[in-house]
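Could you join me in thinking about how sequence relates to backbone shape in a protein? Would you write everything just below, so we can both look at the same thing?
***
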Amino acid sequence: MDLAPTNNQVPTRPVDQLVLDLLRRQEGLTVVDLTEKLEVTATAVRQRLDRLENAGYVERRKNSVGRGRPTFSYFLTDLGWRQVGVTYTDLAVALWSEIMLLEESGTKAKLIERVSKRMGRAFRDLLPEGSIEDRMKSLAGLMAARRIPASFVSVEGLPILSVHACPYPDLTSRDTDRSLCHLEQQVLSEAIGQPLELSCCKLDGHGSCQFKPTQKQIPQTSNL
């Protein structure tokens, strides 16, 4: 999840979208390649690539060459792939359905825990150091950048993260035992580094799912 923690996903211009579409079809294109395919000047291509790099949609990698001016190849980032419409919804629905069919409750619980920890660590790596309030606020912005409407407030010194729409609507409708709610709680707890409790849930008729910290600290785990 290499996504920069910005609060809003940057819209692309139609001419820049053409670059993303080309990199989706063939990664590792150079300025020369893009100039030929788009039939524009190299200056125009570099301007488009600069905008896409600044938005976090494209990254460049230096090619190994001898002497002379270095050349670069361009690739979509994870955010760039999402911008061009890549989705894993069908895969997620199928995998979650199979997890829910596991008869051994202990195995199911361990698998959900491992998945949630992996997802949480990916978020945690993008959060700045600081107080729990700072991390929760940054997490709300990171979720918003992923088109998950979320907000942060502090009520009488108690930090609260509100998620205003379920990140997994296709899965929630199939989730009869609230396992998905538990997974989301574990993901956010792992990301923050401190257990969060789900104090309000949309499935119970509330306007948002609200998460607030408990006192117990989560031990830091490796990325292995």
